Amino acid sequence: MENNFYSDNKSLKFYLDHPMMKKCxxxxxxNYADKGKYDYAPADFEDALDSYDKVLExxxxxxxxxxxxxxxxxxxxxxxxxxxxxxxxxxxxxxxxALTQAGLYGMSLPRKYDGLNFSMVPYVMAAELTSRADAxxxxxxxxxxxxxxxxxxxxxxxxxxxxxxxxxxxxxxMDLTEPDAGSDLxxxxxxxxxxxxxxxxxxxxxKRFITNGGANIKLVLARSEEGTTDGxxxxxxxxxxxxxxxxxxxxxxxxxxxxxxTAELVFTNAPAQIVGDRRLGLIKYVMSLMNGARLxxxxxxxxxxxxAYREAFKYAQEREQYKKTxxxxxxxxxxxxxxxxxxxxxxxxxxxTSRYVDLCKSYDMLVRECGRVLTPEEKADAKLCQRNADMLxxxxxxxxxxxxxxxxxxxxxxxxxxxxxxxYPIERMYxxxxxxxxxxxxxxxxxxxxxRHVVNGNYLKLIRENYEVTPLKADLEYLRKExxxxxxxxxxxVKKVQDANDGEYLDFHARRLxxxxxxxxxxxxxxxxxxxxxxxxxxxTLFVRMGKAEIAKxxxxxxxxxxxxLTEYK
Length: 570
Description:
The chain has 17 helices and eleven strands. With 570 residues, it is an alpha+beta fold.
């Protein structure tokens, strides 16, 4: 078998060839306007897709040949602080150097800043691949999202300064969290004051739990408005650590993702420049960055699931008990079937979300950078894509992060006692997966973000108008009928909760309602995939059955369990 994490997973090429990709690529390339300006710019869609395929082959090879073999050593060694610098583990640095030398950083950024101008889809695929190889290193790769924020909102001067550096491999961090401001970013207190003499802002305060905290290029959320206490007083700043004013106080000793340095930072009169407009730091810029980060955690989670499933499948084929391999025991192959199905379901919503994010960003770029006036049809489509991206992102993050924990748990269970030992990679993966339901907004916060799309009917509209009407082969129609019946039960459950007209009751059942919608949406996505390729039929069938059972469970809880039943546990 060739040692390449891209070519050994046919699902990735399947999603790269999705019918929506032509629209994504055509918009991203602005009718291939860069043709002739850059020798690596594509001439047409087929040329672009061929470039995506070839670059992902390189990513897949580096992941299989370098990043994955380094993962155990990186987990054991971890980073350290030397003279106020974070020094990566030897393997982490080797991973980063390999990707840098291959010219793979800056995949989605415009060519005028030395990027590849790729669609978001291959960039997200690269995130999935790096995370399959080593979930901790997936964070370092994924923090290129900071470049997207600089590209979308910073001045041309700042873009020209920082984006080519990032494309050349300079690493980034987003410095948001503080000791007293975790998920509640409105409580951020790190102070930003204008220094008239130096024509810059000065940052003073502490940031905590900062992923890749030793990075040189930092996006920092800080309070720029005196006397404010909420999000309207916060602005966003870009800071170059080489300009001085930052002390790396400590690195956290974490349960997992050990190769990804998580730091506590002290800013002391650190010079910085503002990104965009004052007072919009949290309201606009961080929310945009967080949505990108949640897409990244979705890719990280799917990569972990793929790796954990493969470890379990390999072990189950080799391990013998009672004179037969354990893959032949129903208790084991049921777990494997569930793991494969959840991985397929997670991947299909990952790339559905990526495509809508892709289109949103491309429409925005056409207006902002190319000066294009969108037609009424394009404006309506851009609005629809933004709505779909907004509603799918929290659902993606919630489901895939929870499933990455479940799949790694089940994979370790297949390994039995061996899986508890550091001799097997699943022990590390199990620890790495745990953070995915916590950072970039916990699963509970994703339900809070998603519930408005339940209440305003957006999920139901998406199901009915996008998925339910999709043409299918005759032998798949029985699954559509199942999903239509599940949708009716979901609609009834939503009405019951809404009719109560009780905010606490809605919050109490929010996650159940979001999960009901998620099982229907992913059921349809897998069904549509099965319509394109028979290889997804088994996963589509099993997932719809799983979803039917989950909806029945949630329906029973909504019908039978009230808030007062649990108040004694407050």
